[in-house]
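Researcher: We plan to redesign the surface later, but first we want a full-length starting point. Tokens attached.
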């Protein structure tokens, strides 16, 4: 065999061996590549009205503690992201529903709930939170934006008195929170979003109410009350607050407690 043919044959052999090696490598990589369904969201990714940033798990826990959720509750998370709040509530034995506009996040949440074994109590719907009826919720959780909270506020204020609203970090304009808690790094919150705020939907109590003691007139600013108590022929200025249907106020140096029973004020 000529030297030239020998070189050509050796070259062909090397080429075939290399091709086989690359083929095997490509096959192995294809096997390692993530399945098409392994959607991985990125913190800060765009959303319809708000980007996705997850609430730190330790704050999710605190938000649900603050709302004092029990299995009697129905929790709704508006803009539910990867489903963590709904899943955490479901793990506490609570029925919970996530409303999320991004269909990939909805599917991811369903997979996460199934993995955690709470698929039966944790549900997710692909929907726009502005077009969602959340009147059945006894607890609403959210991590949206201040202007979105403000847009939702009129609807929230028509919910059943006592409904608890918990927000990660963002406020509700001049409706000040009933409770606020900021978690420290020592408490496990090392990220930026570590404040939970709670509002309790107040009963509507503005106006005059006849009570055995006399007459109470309330001026209501969300949960804050001012007004007068007329009793024993005198008029006293009052100050107080309403928490769901429970009313507390002080007037004339005395503390009063009461409850709205429908439209009737029952004063103790
Ligand atoms: C800041 S993330 C909060 C996610 C989750 N609630 C949490 O605390 O981890 C806001 C979520 O709202 C979703 N979102 C934005 N606009 C929405 C809309 N109009 N309706 C429903 N979901 C929306 C985003 O896709 C994103 O997942």
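Model: Full-length starting sequence:
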């Amino acid at each position: 065999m000529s030297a030239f043919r020998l070189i050509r044959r050796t070259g062909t052999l090397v080429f075939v061996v290399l091709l086989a090696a690359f083929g095997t490598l490509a096959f192995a990589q294809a096997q390692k590549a993530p399945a098409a369904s392994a959607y991985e969201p990125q913190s800060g990714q765009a959303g319809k009205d708000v980007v996705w940033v997850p609430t730190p798990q330790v704050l999710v826990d605190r938000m649900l503690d603050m709302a004092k959720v029990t299995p009697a509750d129905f929790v709704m998370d508006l803009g539910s992201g990867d489903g963590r709040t709904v899943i955490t509530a479901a793990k506490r034995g609570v029925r919970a529903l996530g409303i999320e506009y991004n269909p990939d996040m909805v599917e991811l949440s369903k997979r996460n709930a199934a993995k955690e074994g709470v698929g039966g109590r944790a549900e997710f719907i692909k929907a726009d939170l502005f077009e969602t009826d959340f009147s059945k919720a006894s607890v609403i959780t959210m991590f949206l934006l201040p202007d979105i909270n403000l847009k939702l506020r009129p609807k929230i204020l028509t919910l059943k008195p006592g409904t608890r609203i918990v927000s990660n970090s963002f406020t509700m304009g001049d409706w000040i929170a009933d409770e606020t808690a900021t978690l420290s790094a020592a408490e496990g919150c090392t990220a930026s979003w570590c404040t939970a705020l709670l509002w309790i939907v107040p009963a509507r109590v503005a106006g005059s109410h006849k009570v055995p003691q006399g007459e109470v007139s309330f001026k209501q600013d969300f949960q804050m009350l001012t007004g007068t108590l007329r009793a024993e022929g005198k008029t006293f200025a009052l100050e107080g607050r309403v928490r769901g249907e429970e009313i507390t106020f002080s007037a004339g140096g005395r503390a009063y407690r009461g409850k709205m029973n429908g439209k009737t004020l029952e004063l103790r």
